[in-house]
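INFO  loader      accepted 1 record
INFO  loader      residues=187
INFO  predictor   begin
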Amino acid sequence: MVITKDKVVSLTYELRIGSFEGEVLEKVNEQNPLIFLFGSGNLLPKFEEQIDGFKVKDKFEFDLTPDNAYGVINENAIVDVPVSAFEMNGEIDQSILKIGNTIPMRDNSGNRLNGVVKEIGNENVKMDFNHPLAGGHLFFKGEVTEVRDATEEELSQGHIHAECGCSSEGNCEDKSNDGCNSNGCGC
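INFO  predictor   done
INFO  writer      dumping tokens
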């Protein structure tokens, strides 16, 4: 069976940044593979394009430029937030307000977003709301481990059902290390 739209795909991969020999950002193995509904919009379009038509045991190796991955760094997404925004009961929570910490926040419309603390001043905190991989040239190397037909339920809901790991949309008993992010996938 080959990878086409509406197939459930399992794969292992290693993600590096900068080059095929660069820093390893993520390694997905056979014990906890990436499992997803192909063509449902849950992964980067150019990632899916690279493996379209592959079958079990096919190996892949490709790179995605920032334009085809998470975009270039948007300077407008680096903003000064008033220190008062970090007050709880009239006091600044010093345990979270540290350089390098990622803090979940909401914009003026109530949308959830994560910001990384870049600088802390007396009046403002410089926060970076770019995707953590924005500006990164990504290098993937891996193998397709399974391809199957999606169930009617998976097709109607636009994602797969599994016991744990990235494919479960984060519905594990132990969510502390399930490999999921906000959209349910590691990619």
